[in-house]
Hints:
The protein has a 5-stranded parallel beta sheet with strand order 2-1-3-4-5, with helices on both faces. It is built from 7 helices and 16 strands. It is an alpha/beta fold.
Amino acid sequence: MKCIIIDDNELALKATEQCVSKAEQLNLVGTFEDAFKALTFLSTNTVDLIFLDIEMPELNGIDFIKALRQPHPYIILTTSHTEHALEAYDYNVTDYLVKPISFPRFLNAIAKVEDMYEKQNIHHSDQDTIFIKKGNLIVRVNKKDILWIEGLGDYVTLNTEKEKFVVHSTMHAIEQKFSTNEFIRVHRSFIIRIDKINNIEDNCISYFDKFIPIGKTYRETVYKRLNLL
């Protein structure tokens, strides 16, 4: 997995870099003491994982996550204050490491990311179809038949008009498998088809017989995608 490290403290950055160098599954492609330079790098480069410090001047870790394009890479926070790390779970981070980082705890966090990265309950067939494992069967499903996707803890449901498929996955992993031209993530627990939106009132989407909230971290992206006049 390609990764980068962002930390304004040089010693802390070097300590994280040392941990990364011991993990064979990681390929470090950049280190940054300046979060703005990291954003510039990510605008033209793709990575799988970001080690991100929370307490940084000018652009802290939370604001950095908000500035990332969706869907963003897996994120492991590095922090001296656990209360900030817990808050960041609202922004779809995978794990957090408390400084000074212990290598066994580091490996535990990497294993969590690797499990998400490698676990494939949904497989691409082409741009229009996917294969979903259902018991002992692998079922072919047309993407156009999927109406909404909902996250439920460690599982995700893909809902069609006639059937609901439940897979063991994360919303982050699922989000990367669906075209951003047709689907949009509007909440940490919901991905929906743009062409099926009826109306929006008070940041709540009327969608078939459901009302789906727009999460605060997704509002700006949602309204930009809707070409709001």
